[in-house]
Design brief:
Length: 212
């Protein structure tokens, strides 16, 4: 819980997470959202980057002690996988969103042996679709995917269901529930906005959360 709160404070402090329940963002799908998360911002803040990478390293070490290789998701997870792998003295690579159309047509970059135990490093999990695609690519290549270590998760039912169906375990450094509590405590949102944000998370297609 202490780690979850620390990372939530970090993300809010540097503007990696914006909460705008009264002026919602529009996702590519058209869904109106009171939250926008850009964890790439963590890379440009030395202190926050240190917290995030230390947290990811600790997660891999404690939750996936058998890990032999870290694989970042393209593109946001690549830098985090590289830094975390350096801390843990592990090999790393990354998985492209699609195979290259030249050279060896790789989708997995970096050396990966069949049977190696892999942990995927992801920056953000919402509906978990892209994360599971990466896991499937690695499994098809013969890797044993132990699970995922991510910076932040919304905890959406669709994402949780997809991960469970695919047999994928995820551990996130922080989550929407913790972030909403911290945001209210520190004045980023009003106390009464907490319920609206959780209502959005529980059913993003239901826009009734927008009514005050």
């Amino acid at each position: 819980m202490e780690m979850e709160r620390k990372i939530a404070k970090d993300l809010l402090k540097i503007g990696a997470v914006f909460l705008r329940p009264d002026e919602p963002f529009t996702w590519a799908s058209g869904i109106k959202s009171p939250i926008y998360c850009d964890n790439r911002m963590t890379l440009t803040s030395v202190d926050v980057r240190g917290d995030v990478e230390a947290g990811l390293a600790e997660t891999v070490k404690t939750k996936f002690p058998e890990a032999e290789v870290l694989m970042g998701t393209s593109t946001a997870g690549i830098a985090h996988a590289a830094i975390t792998a350096t801390i843990l003295n592990l090999p790393m690579g990354y998985v492209r969103s699609g195979a290259k159309d030249h050279g060896r047509n790789n989708q997995i970059e970096g050396k990966l042996e069949r049977g190696q135990k892999v942990v995927v490093i992801e920056d953000l999990i919402s509906t978990a679709g892209s994360c599971i695609e990466v896991v499937n690519v690695l499994r098809e290549a013969g890797a044993e995917v132990l699970g995922v270590a991510s910076i932040f998760t919304y905890g959406m039912k669709k994402g949780l269901d997809r991960l469970a169906e695919a047999g994928v375990v995820n551990y996130s450094l922080s989550n929407l529930d913790t972030l909403v509590d911290v945001a209210a405590e520190e004045g980023y949102i009003r106390e009464e906005d907490k319920e609206r944000l959780i209502k959005f998370r529980n059913n993003p297609s239901d826009e009734s959360w927008m009514k005050r």
